[in-house]
Design brief:
The chain is α/β, with parallel strands linked by helices and 261 residues long. The chain has helices at 2-26, 68-74, 94-112, 124-135, 165-169, 175-181, 234-245; strands at 54-57, 82-85, 117-122, 142-148, 190-196, 216-223, 259-260.
Length: 261
């Protein structure tokens, strides 16, 4: 068992290094904010699409380039509008970003003619989305919130980074996480949290699970995948797409491959 776990951890580490290299190459392409698509009537098309639009939220010190593969998969066949949201690199309070997100969601609904949207957040982006849903009334607009490697209960990793206010807000005893532990009766958003035992930025690993009695939650364990690979791995991408398309059985990949349980 120990050798098996060691081998899986090694494979996850190698994959993280590969993903990191690719992401560093793509990072400059995502520095500038994405241009919002024109409203359907301005393009000469009918308003709305088959499925609710999706807004992708990146993590701490990152940008929209992390979602290149996920965005392509979710937007395939033109069934849904998929956009990314770059929040300011000078952000010091995720609650401020959540309020900006609220305005972006309203704009997205107006442009697509939809009443509700889906949010997918990686790492800190998942906390921004959850704060909007739980604390700012975003459950009236968000159908499904998917989080990938998000420290819902706080992470103790990298204590030397506590000088940054956003990192402090991701600590277990922060004011933000205390707010998120507060009651949220009647919250209508479906929450799906993907977490991995090989996520090196989650300490403990289970902190990426959502544990809240008032929320409609599904926690999905991912194996063989680290933090950076979560939004880019084909297994996770396929699972996120199935989550947004509706309930469906998840097929098991071949032995030794990364899997979703």
């Amino acid at each position: 068992m120990g050798l098996s776990m060691s081998g899986a951890a090694l494979r996850a580490g190698v994959l993280e290094a590969i993903v990191l290299g690719g992401h560093l190459l793509l990072y400059p392409t995502g520095v500038l904010p994405e241009r919002s698509a024109a409203a359907p009537h301005e393009r000469g098309h009918e308003r709305g699409r088959e499925r609710p639009p999706v807004l992708l939220l990146h993590g701490f010190t990152d940008n929209r380039s992390v979602f290149v593969l996920l965005r392509r998969a979710l937007g395939a066949c033109g069934r849904r509008q998929v956009e990314t949201y770059n929040y300011s690199p000078f952000t010091r309070d995720l609650r401020v970003t959540a309020r900006h997100l609220a305005r972006r969601v309203e704009d997205l609904c107006e442009r697509t003619g939809q009443d509700r949207v889906d949010l997918v957040g990686h790492s800190l982006g998942g906390l921004v989305g959850r704060y909007y849903v739980q604390r700012l009334g975003g459950d009236t607009r968000v159908r499904t919130l998917v989080t990938l490697g998000t420290p819902h209960s706080g992470t103790r990793v990298a204590p030397f980074m506590d000088a940054h206010p956003l990192v402090r807000q991701m600590r277990p005893d922060s004011e933000v996480l205390t707010e998120l532990r507060a009651p949220a009766p009647g919250c209508r958003t479906r929450c799906v949290a993907f977490w991995s035992e090989f996520d090196e930025l989650m300490d403990p690993a289970g902190t990426a699970r959502i544990e809240h009695p008032d929320l409609l939650v599904e926690n999905v364990q991912v194996t063989g995948i680290g933090h950076l690979a979560l939004p880019a791995h084909p297994t996770v991408i396929a699972a996120v797409r199935r989550t947004l398309d509706g309930p469906a059985p998840i097929a098991r990949p071949h032995p030794g491959a990364a899997s979703v349980a």
